[in-house]
């Protein structure tokens, strides 16, 4: 209907908005003022009567035909008498009133979802009454879990019986539940476990699901090479070990080099009383826990671009003694023919660079030598790397 007057479909759409907001499902649980729901109708104005009398009659008839008086459910009409000098007295619908929540559900064909919602709430009431308040506030989340509720409740029960178990997720022995089930539902499980578990069993400062609820996490692996043959461990120089074990290793070295590029780490020249750590990028923060690094000479070698200098600044936040390696303007300009383009430069502020390093960063950010100039560390000649090490 092109008139813009409210028709039965408009009434259903208004109810759909209430459904989407969760208010109709909530009305199944608590007594509130939502029902009877009174909806003011967009209707003809008095000056429309003469020009559109036939169309108005069809509009009234359509509303009445679909009303509860004729269908047995849905909306009732409130009508007001309109007196017109040509058409006489007529009753014009002004409001649609949906008497009960069940009328609304049937009108929207949502009875099955509502019954399912109440069924789930009955189960929660029996097994986890602490979740009822949450369910009332988030009725659509309750429905969205769908057939997963049996598994969800099994997971909640297991965690409540085994707090802070310090097992890997793969080790959880929950009948009918595999690791993927939990992995794919961490969001909803986090919400629910936060409610049902005692506060003292939850690590609220944790950044991962596993740490938050007392599971073991996959250890962060650190790749390193010992650069002094005298420091090899039973003949081994290239090691990948969990950061927790690196904390305990405490190798007898004077200098530690940190570089991003894997190949650079693998072919880093031999150097007395030294080792190289590589392949971390912005994850370099994991080295904060390795406290023995604070006692060593630290050299960071990254790309000469905005992100490389930002990582250098990051390393100095916990290893303030860090010196940069081959990350200066002279090195950049020497390899002009090997420059590449940094697509998404770092545009933030830093506070721990030297004046020369900070000037280099500003020059790169301001495109002094061209847009997005960068020199990747693997493009620096191996001979220059050796020459730098010879000066130490």
From TrEMBL:
InterPro entries attached to this UniProt entry: DUF3322, JetD_C, UCP028408
Domain DUF3322: start-end pairs: 8-193
Pfam families: DUF3322, JetD_C
Coiled coil (UniProt feature): none
Domain Wadjet protein JetD C-terminal: 214-387
Protein name in the entry: Wadjet protein JetD C-terminal domain-containing protein
